[in-house]
Write a structure and sequence with these properties.
single chain, 172 residues
């Protein structure tokens, strides 16, 4: 059987360069592996109860959440106890979802973009990572707008000045 060759075994390292020859040491692609994406050893994982509480409070408590709670008081006539119960239930739901998403990262010491590679593929995992970035930008902008409006209203109340009207409002 002239010209027949046995199939070659796949390379043991999936980060290898395509042009790598057998016996040569592989070097991971910087797009696929860097210190930020590398798994953390158990000794380097320093999150404790305080860190977990801070993560929970950052996901569960926000200015928009409290604005929603105030609107429940004003617009729907709910009692304080009902609004408080709604805040607690929503915080528990958010905590459960955040815990589910973060469990593999905590267990294996890998960040979310690396974890997403298992289900989406190496390069397709960039898509949810970008979506997370866009959502974070939108959320930060919304929080900043609501906070600046609250500070503006507070300053107007403290100084006693009436709300100003913009030139767009007075033009019509």
């Amino acid at each position: 059987m002239a010209g027949f060759s046995a199939p070659r075994a796949p390379a043991p390292n999936t980060f290898c360069d395509v042009s790598q020859k057998r016996g040569q040491k592989s070097h991971p692609s910087p797009r696929l592996h860097n210190p930020d994406l590398a798994p953390l050893k158990k000794e380097a994982r320093t999150w404790g109860e305080i860190s977990l509480f801070n993560a929970w409070s950052n996901t569960s408590q926000s200015l928009l959440g409290y604005t929603l709670a105030a609107s429940l008081f004003l617009n729907y006539g709910l009692s304080g106890g009902q609004v408080f119960a709604a805040l607690i239930v929503s915080a528990l739901i958010v905590t459960a979802l955040v815990s589910l998403v973060g469990k593999p990262s905590v267990r294996y010491g890998i960040p979310y973009p690396v974890m997403a590679r298992a289900s989406m593929g190496v390069y397709s995992a960039n898509f949810p990572a970008l979506l997370r970035g866009f959502v974070a930008i939108f959320w930060y902008g919304t929080q900043t707008y609501v906070a600046s409006t609250a500070i503006s209203l507070l300053m107007r109340h403290v100084t006693g000045s009436p709300p100003s009207t913009s030139s767009a409002d007075s033009a019509g």
